[in-house]
Amino acid sequence: MRLTIRSAGPIAIAAVVLLAGAAVTVMPTVLAEPPSAVDSGPASDAQDPMALLGEMWRTPEVATPTPTDSPTPTASPTPTPTDSPTPTASPIPTPSPSPAPTAKPKPKPIPDTVAGARTYVKLRIGVKQYNCVNAIWSQESKWNPRAGDVGGAYGIPQAFPGSKMAAFGSKWRTSPITQVKWGIWYVNSQYGSGCAAWSFWRDHGWY
Predict the structure, then answer these.
(1) Paired sense of beta strands 16-20 and 23-27, if any
(2) Contact indicator for 128, 195 with CB cutoff of 8 Å
(3) Alpha-carbon gap, residue 169 to 182, rounded angstroms
(4) Inter-residue contact 125 to 194 (CB < 8 Å)
(5) Which of 14, 108, 164, 165 is the most buried (most CB within 10 A)?
């Protein structure tokens, strides 16, 4: 930077200020005297060059900022814990009583009679086979449990000898049920069925 200052006094001094880092050099220079016709005013108005230089280097006053109070942080409200609902116990279902099983009626025992023996045969081999066996025994003994001779052919099926029927019961001499049990076994084991036995009987007159 180069600065030239003219003074209103009789002698003008120019100051050249060279700034190099922090060093300042002042070089005075004698200037020509200004025309006398121009009155620069009283000598008291003349400014000292060094004062001007000091004014130039005066540090400008910087207004110190007034610290403002920082707002006090407001404490966040602590959330109030809410009570969790107490779980309600599920009601235990009352088991409904199971209905008591209905007892099956016990079959009535078949009476040990001729009528009972006929019913027994129908239940064991069915109506069709019963009809064939009925045809044979009606011809042999007419369903009489005491027909014949104990030592020979005897009873409803005319077992020969009659003692063979003892395998189905001790009362084979008088029990129609015991006698027809043996008769069913005989026709099935000897001929395969009651109707096959009836077919043989018709051809031979005996079985």
Answers:
(1) antiparallel
(2) yes
(3) 9
(4) yes
(5) 165
- Angstrom distance (rounded) from CA 153 to CA 160: 4
81: pLDDT strictly greater than 80: no
Q: Coil, strand or helix: which one is 125? A: helix
CA distance 101 to 99: 6
CB 187 within 8 A of CB 194: yes
Torsion, Cα 59 61 66 67, to 10 degrees, reads: -10
* The model's pTM: 0.51
Distances (CA, A) of 116 to 84, 107, 113, 129: 80, 14, 5, 17
Torsion of CA 139, 143, 147, 153, to 10 degrees: 60
The tokens for 17 are 């200020």
Residue 154 CA to residue 132 CA, distance in Å, equals 20
- Other CB atoms within a 10 A radius of the CB of residue 115 amount to 11
